[in-house]
């Protein structure tokens, strides 16, 4: 008791000597610490029908049940995206002369489908490859037509529901390594392509498992969120400019297919899809393209074990949980990692 009384007396004396500004600062820090611990740091939510999936994830993927604690200065989707992009290191992945990644000559294979404007030199994909390599797996990066150093030869690019190229890659890998287990990971748009491939192929996907990250389950809702002022300038305009650059780089194959001047004038992803993507892939309208690309309507078609990782405050996939009938998630596990 004497020790406790002494500590309390010392603390009271210390606080008594503080200025008003320091007292306010200390009080705010203590309130923030409590808020951070009990409101920000939470374990992800798991949504699935089969308990076997839950048990498997808890055993083999312990982070799926552990408390998620973002860096206290960057909790929230926007800060994590901006600060992470600036501070994240760029791992070195060696390439041989044929363009194939030199990875460990081991058992399994993993295929990566990239984001909207990603390529094999994108920061996030290099981190993925580095981690997979440590586990003894080979990696194959599925780069979209015309992205990176590739030049287009035909007026066909890529979109959320066009799966022919991914199917070709999967068949190519299985033909070369027929006995090796094959998994796939799709990020953002790549996740949409992977999801549609799984829905289309059913039980014949040739994959033992798959994972999607930040899939825009409903394009209509995604475009609404991306149209808000902050998201418009942080994401929408930025990605639209990259997409325009992609078209200008391959303008020789798209002349006569789309109106190049109209494409150059777009300032949002929504406008780009209307002026370019919907026309290149023969959709009747932008709404027709988005309806066809809506992954949330095809959950019942998935027959390959699939782990879908999303953040509830992801600007590309807002409030996605409301789109699902969870009683139908026989092969799909939704992992919701709230970042704010």
Question: How would you characterize the overall build of this protein?
Answer:
The chain folds into 2 domains: 25-216 and 298-340, Rossmann fold (3-Layer(aba) Sandwich), CATH 3.40.50; 219-293, no CATH class. It is 45% helix and 10% strand. The chain is built from 13 helices and 7 strands.
Task: List the keywords.
single chain, 340 residues, alpha/beta, Rossmann fold, 2 domains, 7-stranded mixed β-sheet, 10% strand, globular, ABHD4, AB_hydrolase_4_sf, acetylesterase activity
Order of strands across the main sheet: 1-7-6-5-4-2-3
Beta fraction of the residues? 5-15%
How many helices? The count is: 13
Task: Give the N-to-C terminal Cα separation.
Answer: 41 Å
Specify the structural class: alpha/beta
- Runs in which pLDDT lies below 50 for 5 or more consecutive residues are 96-107
CATH fold name of the largest domain: Rossmann fold
- How many domains make up the 3D coordinates? 2
